[in-house]
Structures are given as structure tokens and as C-alpha cells.
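Q: Could you fold this chain for me?
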Amino acid sequence: VPTKLIEARLGRTKVRQEAISEMVPDFVDEAIKKDGLEVIASPEVEVVEGEESGPVKVKAIVEVYPEVNIAGYEGLEVRITGLEPTEEEIQSRIDKLRATAGELVDQDRSIKKGDRVTVTIENREDPSDAQVMLEDYVLEVGANELVETLDQALVGVSKGDEVTFAWKTRESEEPKELVAKVGEVRELILPEITDEWAQDASEFSTVDELKADIVEKLKESKLNYAQREFRAKSVMALSELMDVEPPRSLVELEVRKDVDNLLHRLEHSSISFSQYLELTGQSEESILANTFVECSIRVKGSMALRALATKLEVDVSDEELREEIKKSAEADNRGNIPDLEDLWSLLDREGRLKGLRSDMREVKALQWLLENIEVKDEQGNQVDKSNLIDDNENASSPSSGEGE
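A: Sure. Below is the predicted structure, expressed as C-alpha cells.
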């Protein structure tokens, strides 16, 4: 369509304004790249001159990634839970096995922790119209299956007694006072720990063999936990050295990502968001608040690792970056690797190479941190770090807060 015809229909000023609107974002992006700025969010752009005629002057307000300073990272120390299983942990695993073959025996005595008790729970706010909320519900006292206040109220009472307790629901701001009527009281009698029992309860012939297997599995479980805990606490200790707090806008970006991921997972599991709230006993506000806290920790960890990478003068070469892009492409495309030069050019055009390089600098900084930080167990004993550093895990998400 001829330009003059468009101008005749829309007006010259309107055409110019639309052209400026289309061109300005590219010019602003180019200016950001030229100045080497790392922006957090989309810039606020205002045309200050030339909207109708003459040279165009634009003002762009951008929030940039903050400069972070850290000091004292050379002498950091963290403490983690011990790697060796305790006798209590071993016995707990054995007792869980024994419970599968236990016998419930009626008791004519006051209730103690561990008893299985049948209760009927009523709401008697209106004495003339008591509402039964749960009928003949069997719970293990002390396991806090419903609410801790109920378990506490049940200890010491007997069959036929009634107890009151407070129960706060998601819908009510104030806790409701409910009544629990005690029915049957039964104790779980566990079988004796013998070789015969071990044979019935497992594939092992003796109690010693069963216990040895439990110890090995506990060691593996505790090591996996310790690796995550070591990593998380190390990043947390480093982040506490920062002289600034993470920008709210940066945290909110992460919150949106996490919420979007949650909604995506729920969609694929055929669970609605309202059902999820009901199942987890949470409100929308509590989910957002908890997510904000988690994202704040994650963003702060990332900022601290970036600052450490700068202090250590960590560098990522183009060769290293290309190799990482190749690995990611192989994983994403299940071996069908696209042309790496084309992929490199695409990432460069989209401005993503800088972010990838920054992520790799974080990984290198994390590796240095884990290798140089001092780690002890809860009793203050030195811990061998050789099994705690997992290179594969480090390469995935350097600033994860997992393991608390």
C-alpha cells in the first residue's frame, strides 16, 4: 500500500507514532547491549522529543542488576547433620517393620502416646444442633494426624471421656473449639526381635543381616541429604555476607516462574488449583508468601555466587560455553543435535549468551565455595567433604535453597 495512501487514511502524525513505537524497542535494546547493562525487567520507555516531527529522542528507565560486595568468604564454616546412623534411627526403622506385624489389643486404661484411639469429633457451638465432623475416626496418639492440640488433649484420658481442643481451619480466622468423644483405646503390641521374625519380615535370615541392610540404606539416605544440606547451607552462609538485599522486582520474577510451573504441573495432573489448596490445607495468600520467601533465598544465593565469581575473577571461555550449549542441546533433543553455529547465532541474537555465561560463572563459583568452605557435624567434628560434593548436582542449579 503506498505510503501517501496510508498517511491520507490515518494521518501523518499517527503513522509516525506507530513507526516510532515499532522501532524504539530495538533501539533501546541496542543501547542496553552497547552499554553492557544487565537489566532485570523490561525498560520503561518514553518518547520525549520528535513524536510529530524532527529527530526522535527517547528516555528509557531500566532497573539494572545491583552491584554486590562480599567479604570474609575465605573463612566460612557450616555445620551439617551427621552421616552415621544413630541407634535411635536404626531402632525406628526396625520398629516400623515390626509394626506391620503388630497386634492391636484393647486397653482399659488411660491413653498414652502411641495408642490407637477411636474418636468422634463434634462442633457444639450451637448446643441445640451439634454437628458431627468426624465419626469413629482412628488415629495414632502423638502422630499429629489431625491437629497437635487433639493429641495433647487425649493423653491421660480414658474410653468414654470427652475432651475439648482448638482446631483452626483454612476458612476460619479464629480456631474453633471442638469436642472429641473417646471410643476404643488399643495398643499396638510389637513382635519380639528374633531371627524368625526377621525371616518373616524381610529377605534376610538373621536380625544382624537385617540390621546391616538398614544401616547401609540409612547411610545412603543421610549422605544424599547431607549433600543437599551442605550445598544449601554453604550458599546461605555466603549470601549472609552480602551488603545488599535482592531487588523485589527480581524476586517477583522468580515467584511468577514458580507459580507458573506449579499451575502447569497441576494442569497435567488434572488437579485444579482450588483442589490443591484443599488437599494441602493452604490458602492462595500463604502459597504466595511462602514462594516469595523461597525465591528471596534463591535469588540472594545467586547474587552471592555472582559476587564471588567476580571476586575470584572467574572466567568462562567461548569454548566452555559452546561445550555447555552442546550438552544442553544433546539433552533437550535426545541426541539429535542442531547445527551448533546456528544455535550459537540464535542465542546471541536473543541476548541469551550473556545469561548462560553468567550461569556457568555461578557454577564455577559454587564449586570453589564447596571446595574451600569448612564443614563440621552438629557436634563440631570435622567432616570429610570428598563424598559431599556432587559435580552433576552443582551443574544443574547453583543457587538452589534445597536441603533446609
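A (continued): Residues 5-11, 393-397 have pLDDT under 50 and may be disordered.
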